[in-house]
Amino acid sequence: xxxxxxxxxxxxxxxxKGDFNAAQVTTAFLQAIRDRDHRVQAFLSVDESDAxxxxxxxxQKRKSGKPMGKLAGVPVAIKDVLCTKGQxxxxxxxxxxxxxxxxxAHVITRLREADAVLIGKTNMDEFAMGSSTENSAxxxxxxxxxxxxxxxxxxxxSAAAVAACEAPLSIGxxxxxxxxxxxxxxxxxxxxxxxxxxxxxxxxxxxxxxxxIGPFSHDVRDAALLMEVIAxxxxxxxxxxxxxxxxxxxxxxxxxxxxTIGVARxxxxxGLDPEVEKSVRAALDVYRGLGATIKDVSLPSSPYxxxxxxxxxxxxxxxxxxx
Amino acid sequence: xxxxxDQVRWVAHLARLEFAPDELAxxxxxxxxxxxxxxxxxxxxxxxxxxxxxxxxxxxxxxPDEPTPSLSVDEALSNAPDRKGDFYSVPAVLD
Lengths: 323, 95
Known about the structure:
The structure holds two protein chains of two kinds. Chain A is an alpha/beta fold.
């Protein structure tokens, strides 16, 4: 298996054992970007010397015997909707093509504290408005599995980067599906955390009551690890929740019982693709097999959800982006 | 409920957008259909339903009213295309 195909937790183990150092790991991923990204177009900006300098600093920190952060030496790609101090943050828009934030988003600070290597900023639908990453003002990102297909959106660049092994982890944002849908289209793990779980400070807002920042990864263990790093209360986001962050990676192998999963019959109505239904029911069987109780429920207001979203999301977007 | 070209032109003006006549026709039709779609919400009875502010019961998130270090003026204005002293200089919006 090539170095770039490893999960983040594998890479951490390899670096802890001393098989590889952070500079070698970052070099391998930078090479992957050089080899592949002219075809995938996941990245809007990569500062190679800065990424390498971050990795070298991690190696020096390890040599000095200091305790290492949870993501020490692991490259993480960042959707260009998050402010990175001193580095361009365009939100996929020509309006911000020269914008260099004077501060880091909260999630960026947490990643730096965890000794992650921020490897580059990824492509997205302009201001997160889109579901295909075709609406970027700069470039169209391709699905690494089939370059004639979309990677999904709006976090298409972050999803494609992980799927193409250009980074083992990436960060996206999700308002109406913008992590979950591209993760699905690119065949990787993606998750929208519960609202309030991850601070939105430094996230260029689309719809403030819907936006959440979340992880992309090859497997659930990596997503859990990334969540442990980015989740948690932040006084600079008044909607962030002041509750302890569970040790997600510690509970992955615990039995799923007792868990009751409600399956809303409104979601299985007209318009549902038979292939999608098959996949969802297969997932429910997996949970049943693990001991979960599956319960039929009704959510009668479901048919109105899209219309409500169109009002809430657009009204909040127009307030946030007023200029 | 069809929107008129005048209504769409006014909204475009507020957004500082300019449309060619054929664009205006297309957008008038599309916006009318979107407004119609959203209008289905009128059928819902919301009498007695409390407005929802947050998915979780968070209220009145305050901090002590004490000044803390923040961005310097130069940092805050570092991306200003045009600057007058300590202010952003922008095109006039109000008459």
